[in-house]
Design brief:
Chain lengths: ~140, ~475
């Protein structure tokens, strides 16, 4: 279940799709954005969080860090032929350390809709909302 | 798009004049959109903004162009064409090429008529679906060692043919004779290579497909004959690109170009326009890696061609599948173009635009030189595709470029709200089009209704003089990733 105050959603972009995470901290927003990324491909609830994969990235600012984080997941999904359903992120300045849990893609069960090619800088934003929560979003190319 | 912000040069040519609007401040050259009034009105305002932003980049030559299918892209519009001169501080842009480097279309003739296929249609659809790896998580039969990976990245379709996936004749009918020169495998990261290790000969997903099609209509008998096309002929079209390798290269260079832009004194109106001077280490490194990705896409389509031929040999052994042509629509290539009466070597970016060389162009194979280059326009699943030909224009338009496809008119989410995959498949089956896909949600997202009318786009390209219509191809079988 999502932590209190956190959620993910998609937003429309012409040919592609936007992923958006909202949480009480940037790290939580990044976790939710990752769930939104999985949801582009399949229902995250169908992904068993069995196998952990560690991910680390670093970028000059939080927005580029979000793109790096999502791109690292795209890379791991493709190279390992896995989908991820659970994420734990910690952010220290502009350094991110995370663990993603998932399982190998099962075509019959996950029925993956589309492959994500990469996270883009279109509509890329990481910012604090008026209610104090954090938003992390960008469009992903499919 | 608000047409009151545009100057109309002719029926199908619209101009954004520099400084004519706050968004047009700082444009170094005009923006030119080739489209009918109806298509321009349908375009997003973002296309205006992106065409104008591209015109602000250093070293841009002549104009920032948009094709009739232009839509909101990443920095550059999809359907954008722009050329840069290295001697005038010109740049190369990762966003101007796109994530799916050298995504493109190839079309194979079969020598069959639609009646020959009809009785074996289901068998053919099932066999193609079984043998062509498509969709998320699929892998090809080939595993590349690191030496073979570098050979593939340097050799392109030539590498594939040398290993038995096709013939010399295929290379004649592929842009760059199947091998993009100047590729630098050492400029491709280990991450990018790792993503490609088991992806050779895979179709991918999204709007990528393999279709068996019938020639439904011929508009130009002479050219169609030269292309080997007649009404009721069966052809096979393959739409895909450089897979994970190209995506990773796009991702990595987008970041390094965005981060370094300031060092190069480039003010980016939008981070997605990330670019580097052609005469810089990053610019040169990107060109080397991007050309390697072009080779990866050419090799990939060549292997898919080989797999397709294998399926036809089993199901319809009378068929021979020579290649009509292979075009790439996400590239940056060095080409010579005459600008203001002077021949110049320019770096032409085509993002969702097809090169369309006219008759007589020296880069065309002998068999096509007299008629011009085939321009292959992919449609959406279940609608139709087109074959056009490059034209002999007194003044070249958009550096000899044309449109590339229909372009979406609706988001994926909206499409899944409106249609169910099963219903789309059944409806198309009722019209004689067999769809095979691992994902019904994927089919719903790619429903024909979610795309613009490819016919309107092609008619506009024809009317604007970008390329001339030759034939329409209607689908019979569609393998979707």
């Amino acid at each position: 279940m999502a932590p209190v105050g956190s959620q993910w959603e998609h937003f429309a972009h012409g040919a592609d799709i936007g992923v958006r995470g909202i949480g009480r901290t940037p790290a939580q927003a990044f976790e939710q954005a990752a769930l939104a990324l999985t949801a582009v491909i399949t229902d995250p609830a169908t992904v068993a969080a069995n196998t952990p994969v560690d991910i680390a990235c670093e970028a000059p600012d939080l927005e580029l860090l979000l793109a790096d984080w999502l791109n690292a997941l795209v890379y791991e999904m493709q190279v390992r032929k896995m989908l991820f359903g659970r994420f734990e992120v910690s952010i220290d300045g502009t350094r991110l350390a995370a663990r993603a849990w998932g399982e190998p893609v099962d075509i019959a069960r996950h029925r993956p809709a589309v492959e994500v090619k990469g996270a883009t800088y279109t509509q890329l934003a990481v910012r604090q909302l008026d209610d104090g929560r954090w938003l992390a979003q960008c469009v992903v190319d499919v | 798009m608000d047409i009151s912000k545009l100057a109309r040069r002719s029926d199908n040519e619209w101009v954004i004049e520099p400084d004519s609007d706050p968004r047009a401040q700082g444009m170094r050259v005009p923006g030119v959109i080739y489209a009918t009034e109806a298509l321009v009105r349908e375009m997003d305002e973002k296309v205006y903004e992106q065409v104008a932003n591209v015109a602000k980049l250093p070293g841009i030559v002549a104009a920032s162009y948009a094709m009739p299918d232009a839509h909101w892209g990443y920095g550059f519009p999809i359907g954008g064409v722009a050329a840069f001169d290295p001697d005038e501080g010109g740049v190369v842009s990762a966003g101007g090429v796109g994530f799916d480097i050298s995504c493109g279309v190839r079309c194979l003739l079969t020598g069959l008529k639609s009646a020959d296929v009809e009785a074996r249609k289901t068998l053919l659809a099932d066999a193609l679906y079984a043998r062509i790896p498509a969709g998320v998580g699929s892998t090809g039969a080939i595993r590349l060692s690191s030496t073979e990976m570098d050979s593939m990245l340097a050799g392109g379709a030539r590498w594939a043919v040398d290993r038995g996936y096709g013939s010399e004749a295929d290379l004649e009918r592929t842009e760059e004779r199947g091998c993009m020169r100047g590729a630098r495998p050492e400029a491709v990261s280990e991450h990018a290579k790792k993503r490609q290790r088991d992806e050779m000969g895979t179709l991918g997903s999204g709007n990528h497909y393999l279709e068996v099609q019938r020639v439904a209509q011929v508009y130009d008998e002479r050219i169609a004959r030269a292309f080997g096309l007649a009404v009721d002929d069966v052809v096979v079209s393959i739409h895909c690109g450089s897979r994970g390798l190209g995506h990773q290269i796009g991702t990595e260079f987008l970041k390094s170009m965005a981060v370094e832009a300031k060092q190069h004194g480039i003010a980016l109106p939008d981070r997605e326009l990330a670019c580097a001077p052609l005469n810089s280490a990053t610019g040169q490194s990107y060109l080397g890696a991007m050309r390697a990705a072009i080779n990866c896409a050419l090799a990939n389509r060549q292997i898919l061609t080989h797999l397709t031929r294998g399926v036809f040999a089993d199901i319809l052994p009378a068929a021979r599948l020579p290649l009509l042509y292979d075009v790439s629509h996400n590239t940056c290539k060095v080409e010579e173009h005459v600008v203001d009466g002077r021949a110049r070597k320019l770096y032409v970016h085509r993002k969702g635009a097809t090169r369309a060389f006219g008759p007589g162009h020296p880069d065309l194979p002998a068999a096509l030189r007299e008629v011009g280059q085939p321009v292959l326009i992919g449609g959406s699943m279940g609608t139709c595709s087109y074959v056009l030909v490059g034209v002999d224009a007194p003044v070249e338009r958009a550096f000899a470029s044309a449109c590339h496809g229909a372009g979406r008119s609706m988001s994926r989410h909206e499409a899944t709200r409106r249609w169910q995959g099963r219903q789309v498949v059944d409806e198309l089956a009722g019209r004689g089009v067999l769809i095979r896909s691992p994902s019904m949600r994927g089919v719903a997202e790619e429903a024909p209704g979610a795309y613009k009318d490819v016919t309107a786009v092609v008619d506009a390209a024809d009317a604007a003089g970008l390329a001339r219509k030759v034939a329409r191809l209607d689908p019979i079988i569609c393998i979707k990733g």
